[in-house]
UniProtKB/TrEMBL annotation:
Superkingdom, natural source: Bacteria
The protein's name in its UniProt record: Helix-turn-helix transcriptional regulator
Occurrences of domain Helix-turn-helix (ranges): 14-60
Organism, as annotated: Streptomyces lutosisoli
Disordered: annotated span: 70-89
Pfam families to which the protein is assigned, alphabetical: HTH_17
Length: 89
């Protein structure tokens, strides 16, 4: 039973280094994002910075949806051209 709880804990949370590896970025980038309050949500568990794997996955999906290359609704090539404003002297 204890082993099952430990494996669930390891699967649910990642420390900063393992989260960076999971995302394929450097730990320093993840550290800077955290300092700037950017990037995936994190929290402290005691003295350690931790990331939920589910939060990392959700953050990646949100990043993907915010990119016009992945989201046709944001693709400027599929939008109608905007009319220019007429300047009055």
């Amino acid at each position: 039973m204890h082993d099952q709880i430990a494996s669930t804990h390891e699967a649910a949370f990642l420390n900063l280094n393992k989260a960076a590896e999971y995302l394929g970025i450097s730990p320093n980038t993840l550290y800077v994002w955290r300092h700037r309050r950017q990037g995936p949500p994190s929290f402290r568990m005691g003295r350690r910075v931790m990331y939920r794997i589910s939060a990392l996955n959700e953050w990646v999906i949100a990043q993907e949806q915010a990119d016009s290359r992945s989201n046709d609704a944001l693709n400027p090539l599929t939008q109608k051209p905007m009319k220019r404003a007429v300047r009055t002297p």
